[in-house]
Amino acid sequence: MFWLLFINLLLIIQTSSLDYINDGNQSIIEALHRNVTVTSGQKAILTCTFGHTDQDLSLSSTYQLIWIRQNYASNSADSLLAHNQDLLISDSRLNVQRTDVEYTLTITNVQVDDEGIYTCEVNTQPSQKAFVHLYVQGK
Fold first, then answer.
1. What whole-number distance in Å separates Cα of residue 55 and Cα of residue 117?
2. In terms of C-beta density within 10 A (0-12 exposed, 13-18 middle, 19 or more buried), how is residue 73 classed?
3. Which residues have CB under 8 Å from 112's CB, separation 6+?
4. Predicted structure pTM score
5. Between vectors from CA 9 to CA 20 and to CA 96, what angle results, nearest 5°?
6. pLDDT tens digit at each of 139 positions of the chain
């Protein structure tokens, strides 16, 4: 339960930049591919990499990473999909993997409804986000 509380606190932290920290340094987390296009039924691999930084984002670090699916419907909240290497929703099509250099969300048997913007976020100060837009083409 502690990590659930931690994740809620993490989501409250405001982000002051999407690509760069306020002082102009390079982002520490970046989308490997900002746009990923797959055909319905295929596998989508969404990957964020840890950029050049003095901050240790290895598996042994205390930094937490999350994957979020942004929902734009007015009555829907964003979906928190994963925390570090743990999936937070029951969907057998999803797999999450974290290494010392990247954070990957894999979706098998992609459906048209999976299309949208996915965010990987790290709890640095300020927190940093990278965005991947998943496009799904019908068969």
1. 26
2. exposed
3. 40, 136, 138
4. 0.76
5. 70
6. 444 444 443 443 333 233 333 344 567 889 999 999 999 999 999 999 986 555 666 666 778 899 999 976 656 788 999 999 999 999 999 999 998 889 999 999 999 999 999 999 998 888 899 999 999 998 7
